[in-house]
Specification:
Rossmann fold, eight-stranded mixed beta sheet, alpha/beta, about 270 residues, single chain
Length: about 270
């Protein structure tokens, strides 16, 4: 279990594959195991840096206020500690917020950028529907399994849930066995709520791809258009029928799109 000391934290990470470095940044409460389907598709083309964010997985969970700038500093510190001064960056959901901060604050450490199922915050943020917000927040009195099943309807698109019941049940079992820790989850959550790069998007000058599932109910696809308008030269790819965790629903297609952007000739 590789552990590295960064910013006073013990951070859990893995290096997988060979090729140009690609840092994968997971979202709210997720750990590096959520990358496994995609990592299998990418390991032949990239050296992947997978890790658990502050407050998640096997990385330390200090009881303090978190912020996107703090989480960005953790990521860049880990890159330096494992000998990766510059890399492609792919962040999803909260990880996409961290990736925005990295591209703005540490541009020399970024080659090409991919922002998945995320938003810029601030006045450009398109909220999820009232039904989705209610499903996310009304958990009082529910069992861990009930919350897990509720979360699956938010994270995965309806077509994937219908066609892959065994996978969904396995995800529910994983959640029940290891639910997010209360206080660290809350600290990550409030850091995500406070995220606002909207007025700084113009400072992102790396070749940028924006990915979203067109059935994402948690971070609606309109948010990807806001990112595109703010980041010069960026483009959006929508995955038809995919939900919030499109990279788990269709890792092969996600990997194909990533290889095209990261190994291509966009400038």
């Amino acid at each position: 279990m590789p552990i590295c000391s960064v910013n006073g934290l013990r951070m859990h990470y893995r290096l997988v594959g060979t090729g140009p470095p690609l840092v994968l940044i997971m979202g709210l409460s997720g750990d590096l195991t959520w990358w496994e389907p995609l990592a299998r598709e990418l390991a032949g083309a990239f050296q992947l840096l997978l890790f658990d964010n502050r407050g998640a997985g096997l990385t330390d969970k200090p009881d303090e206020k978190y912020s996107m700038s703090m989480l960005a500093s953790d990521t860049v510190g880990l890159m330096d500690a494992v000998g990766i001064p510059r890399a492609h960056i792919f962040g999803v959901s909260m990880g996409g917020m961290i990736a925005q901060e990295i591209a703005i604050r540490y541009p020399d450490g970024v080659d090409r950028l991919v922002l998945g199922c995320t938003h810029a915050g601030g006045k450009g943020f398109t909220m999820p529907s009232a039904d989705t917000v209610q499903a996310m927040t009304l958990t009082r009195g529910k069992s861990v399994e009930e919350i897990a099943r509720q979360n699956m309807t938010i994270l995965f698109g309806p077509k994937f849930r219908e066609e892959n019941p065994k996978f969904i049940e396995a995800m529910i079992a994983r959640f029940v066995e290891n639910p997010p820790a209360g206080k660290p989850f809350t600290q990550q959550f409030w850091a995500a709520i406070a995220h606002n790069c909207h007025d700084r998007l113009g400072e992102i000058r790396r070749p940028t791809l924006i990915l979203t599932g067109d059935a994402d109910v948690l971070i609606p696809p309109e948010n990807s258009e806001t990112l595109r308008l703010g980041i010069a030269g960026s483009r959006v790819v929508r995955l038809p029928g995919a939900g919030h965790v499109f990279f788990m629903e269709d890792p092969k297609e996600t990997a194909r799109i990533l290889r095209e952007h990261l190994l291509g000739n966009e400038s």
